[in-house]
Amino acid sequence: MYKNRLQEYTQKSSLQLPVYQTFNEGPAHMPRFRSTVWVDGAQYTSQKTFLHRKAAEQDAANLALESILKRVKDEECPLLDAETVFCKSILNEFAVKVNREKPTYNSVQLPGPLPIFTSTLVFDGVSYTGDAGRNKKEAEQLAARKVILGQRKLFIK
């Protein structure tokens, strides 16, 4: 149920689908599963362990959904915060409009079992590092979003 709702949310928001990683923390004869889900550059890990892998994944998805919905509700501009797909374009257009140099990006892949990237950008002489993304493009969008949210008063008029 929660996995379906989380997948529907990511599709409606034009985000990459959630990625789950589940581990058995118990002995082979008595497994105890804990799951982590990555969504929009953030990770959510089930607090408890479960007898079944599916239950652990559902718990992690529920945790992610609750966190995302709370964040969207609490923030002033949920569309800008939820939609990262346009952030680079918005930032580039803003730079042209105010006659500033376009931002430069430096993206790196973090070590680990899953491909996770971070991106740092320089805009107007200041460095900004975005949240982690599942690919280079997403990491750059998240870095651009960091600039936009940090300079919200300049962008929203």
From TrEMBL:
Gene3D superfamilies: 3.30.160.20. PROSITE patterns: DS_RBD (PS50137). The keyword Protease does not apply. It comes from the Eukaryota. The keyword Repeat applies. Pfam families: dsrm. Residues 1-70, 86-148 form the DRBM domain. GO terms for molecular function: RNA binding. Keywords: Repeat, RNA-binding. This is RIBONUCLEASE III.
